[in-house]
Amino acid sequence: MPGYEGVEDEGFFIQPVDAELLSADRARQEVDYAADDAPGTIVIDTFARKLYHVQENGRAMRYAIAVGREGLSFRGSGVIGRKAKWPSWQPTANMIRTRPDLYAEYAGGRAGGLDNPLGARALYLYRGGRDSMFRIHGTIQNETIGHATSAGCIRLFNQDAIDLYDKVDTGTRVKVRSLEESIAIEGPYMDDAYGRAVPETPENIAQKPLDEQRMVEQEAAKVEAAAKQAEIDAKAAAKADKKRLSACKRKGIDAVDCPPLPEMTTADAGSTSVEAKLDAASNG
């Protein structure tokens, strides 16, 4: 999709965003904006999981976001106090305490790059002249956009983070809506079966259990397919092992001394190259 292609940036290559992740209004677009926020303001709705950059004449650029636990802790307004390209990252003390298995090794920080959770850009929200620890940033997990996540602040697709970064300056006002404001302006939202924020309409309410049932059926089909494949692989391995032992017997090698084949695959079971593989294993 235009605007979400792969792009070279500051020495890093950002992968294109899969088209399926841009459905359900998750691609940025200019929209009508009915609220009375001043042009230039960034407005974040953590409940509808949308970010607006307000423009003139009742318009705004809308971006889809993912919202982490830290992103839910801020309400009210602040200003962009700092901007960074390919920012470094350090997990908070709370992140380390609650998930040491994920974050303890990065307690000293992590340099910017393609494996950095802040992605390609970061905007740092200040309030009262101090860093609020609230961030608007890119991501290395495109599939999370539109969802609630376990950690982090406000995530955008990297392409969107770059787009917004280029349009705002330090000092830009940022407003985070309350639940009451969100409902008044956007209407009530709910999570669909896939964890995405969608309007709480009768249609979406009715669709959710249908999608949940479909997901259960798809998972059951996956488990069944995996079990069938495991059975096929087990039979193939047994057949290959039988050929291995027969080949050793013909060569006068006791079963306990018979070397294993380099690999046991389904294809090997039907091949006639077991002795050749056995010779290779013996010579190795």
From TrEMBL:
Gene Ontology cellular component annotations, sorted alphabetically: extracellular region
Entry keywords, A to Z: Cell shape, Cell wall biogenesis/degradation, Coiled coil, Glycosyltransferase, Hydrolase, Peptidoglycan synthesis, Transferase
Ranges where the record places region Disordered: 261-284
Family classification: Belongs to the YkuD family.
Superkingdom assignment: Bacteria
Residues covered by the L,D-TPase catalytic domain: 40-177
InterPro entries given in the database record: LD-transpeptidase (IPR050979), LD_TPept_cat_dom (IPR005490), Transpep_catalytic_dom (IPR038063)
Pathway(s) of this molecule: Cell wall biogenesis; peptidoglycan biosynthesis
Official protein name in the record: L,D-TPase catalytic domain-containing protein
Active-site residues from the entry: 137, 153
GO MF annotation terms: glycosyltransferase activity; peptidoglycan L,D-transpeptidase activity
GO BP, sorted A to Z: cell wall organization; peptidoglycan-protein cross-linking; regulation of cell shape
Coiled coil: 213-240
